[in-house]
Design a protein that fits this description.
Helix content is 19%, strand content 36%. With 142 residues, it is an alpha+beta fold. It has a single domain, classed as Nucleoside Triphosphate Pyrophosphohydrolase, CATH 3.90.79. Strands 1, 2, 3, 4, 5, 6, 7 and 8 form an 8-stranded mixed beta sheet that branches. The protein starts with 8 loop residues before the first strand and ends with a strand.
């Protein structure tokens, strides 16, 4: 049987309120101390939608409700640990975000004040701004 190298699946969430996006400050490497979208790895046997809801609950303590998919990001250099494939969802949510799990802290990020974000999250935020204008989906090379 042929052995395949498989890139792990990850998920990221965009939770927006009053024009600002919920971000966590990472507690662990890589990108320790930097802002990132809430998200993480998909567990074996878990659907990406389930992983997204679980990760948002673990990192921010809120219930995410998926609105739509923003896109799929699979750039080879998006994670220094190796290739990953992230499905990014736009969500509404219920509750008050509070940092938990591997989030050092939580903050509302104003996308107009560009900062260096972890992973490829600057590109994802740029794509989200474009999505708000034309509602199209994105992927790493688009």
């Amino acid at each position: 049987m042929t052995q395949y190298k498989v890139a792990p699946d990850t998920v990221d969430a965009i939770l927006e309120q009053d024009g600002k996006i919920a971000m966590i400050r990472r507690k662990k490497d890589p990108f320790r101390g930097q802002l990132a979208l809430p998200g993480g790895f998909v567990d074996y046997g878990e659907r990406v939608e389930e992983a997204l809801v679980r990760e948002v609950k673990e990192e921010l303590g809120v219930e995410a409700d998926i609105i739509t998919i923003l896109g799929v990001y699979s750039g080879m250099d998006r994670d220094p640990r190796g290739p990953t494939i992230s499905t990014v969802f736009i969500c509404s949510f219920e509750g008050i975000p509070v940092a938990g799990d591997d989030a050092e802290s939580f903050e509302w990020y104003n996308p107009q004040n560009r900062k260096d974000l972890a992973f490829d999250h600057n590109k994802i935020i740029e794509d989200f701004i474009l999505w708000k204008e034309n509602k199209s989906t994105f992927w790493s090379t688009k």
